[in-house]
TrEMBL record:
It comes from Bradyrhizobium zhanjiangense. This is 2OG-Fe(II) oxygenase. Its cofactor is L-ascorbate. The keyword Lipoprotein does not apply. InterPro entries: Oxoglu/Fe-dep_dioxygenase_dom, Pro_4_hyd_alph, Pro_4_hyd_alph_FE2OG_OXY. The keyword Metal-binding applies. Residues 118-209 form the Fe2OG dioxygenase domain.
Length: 225
C-alpha cells in the first residue's frame, strides 16, 4: 500500500486528477477547490514570506495592455534571458514551496505532461479597490508559457472576477474562493475586473515545458526583418 502511494499524488486520487485534466482540456480553465493543492499552513507560509518582498506598481503589461496592480516579483523571465528567482531569500523559499513533489506531481497530471513543467515566472498581486488587470494574453510575455496557475490569497473583497474569453465561445466568469487554484491556458485572452471593495490578492505562476531563455525578443526581431 505504501509502495503504491509513492507513484501517486498524496493530494488527489488519480480519478480526481483526470477529471480536472479533462475540464482543463475542454474549457481551457479549471478551478481546483481550497485545501487541495495548498494547505492552510502553506498559504500562511507564503503570506509570511511575501512580507519580505518589495512591491512595485504596474500600469502597463508586456504587450502594452493596461493594468493597475501592485506586484511582488518571485521569479522573473526577462526577454532574451533564462528565468531566475528575484533577489533575496523569500523568493527562493516560495519557489521551493511551489515546487514540492506532491504538488508538482498533481499539477503535471492536471496539465497533462509526462515530465515536470518548469515555473518560468512567478509573482504576487495585490489589488485594492479600483485595481484591475486589462484583457491580455499571457503568451505575449513569453511564447513558451503554456498554463498559468493562480492561487487565491484573499477572502474579503468584491469585484475582481477573473474573466476568460475563449475564441468562438461565451466568455466565462470565475470567482474562486480563498485557497482555491485557478489553472488556465496562456493562449486564451482574459482579464481581472476592477476590484470594488476589500483587497484581492493572488499568487500567479506560469508553467512551461521549456527552461531556456525567453524567446520573446528573438521572435519579435525576426518578425521585424
Ligand atoms: O492575479 C490574477 O488573478 C491573474 C492576473 C493575470 O491574468 C496575470 O498575471 O497574467
Ligand atoms: Fe494573465
Amino acid at each position: 500500500m505504501v509502495r503504491a502511494m509513492n507513484h501517486k499524488s498524496r493530494l488527489l486520487s488519480e480519478e480526481a486528477l483526470t477529471k480536472y485534466r479533462i475540464e482543463l482540456l475542454v474549457k481551457g480553465t479549471v478551478v481546483i477547490g481550497p485545501q487541495i493543492l495548498f494547505t492552510q499552513d502553506e498559504l500562511a507560509k507564503i503570506d509570511q514570506l511575501q512580507a519580505e518582498i518589495p512591491e512595485e506598481e504596474v500600469r502597463e503589461g508586456d504587450a502594452g495592455d493596461s493594468h493597475n496592480v501592485f506586484v511582488k516579483r518571485v521569479r522573473i523571465d526577462p526577454p532574451g534571458r533564462a528565468p531566475s528567482n528575484a533577489n533575496g531569500a523569500a523568493p527562493g523559499q516560495i519557489m521551493e514551496l511551489l515546487e514540492r513533489k506532491d504538488r508538482s506531481f498533481a499539477l503535471r497530471k492536471i496539465l497533462g505532461a509526462t515530465s515536470d513543467y518548469v515555473i518560468r515566472r512567478c509573482q504576487m498581486h495585490r489589488m485594492p479597490p479600483g485595481s484591475y488587470v486589462g484583457i491580455h494574453l499571457d503568451a505575449a510575455s513569453d511564447p513558451d508559457f503554456e498554463y498559468s496557475v493562480i492561487v487565491q490569497l484573499a477572502r474579503d473583497f468584491e469585484g475582481g472576477e477573473f474573466v476568460v474569453y475563449p475564441s468562438g465561445y461565451e466568455h466565462q466568469v470565475y470567482r474562486p474562493p480563498f485557497g482555491a487554484v485557478l489553472v488556465t491556458t496562456c493562449r486564451v485572452q482574459h482579464e481581472v475586473k476592477p476590484v470594488l471593495t476589500g483587497e484581492r490578492r493572488s499568487l500567479v505562476y506560469f508553467c512551461s515545458k521549456r527552461s531556456g531563455a525567453n524567446r520573446r525578443i528573438i521572435e519579435s526581431s525576426t518578425a521585424g526583418l
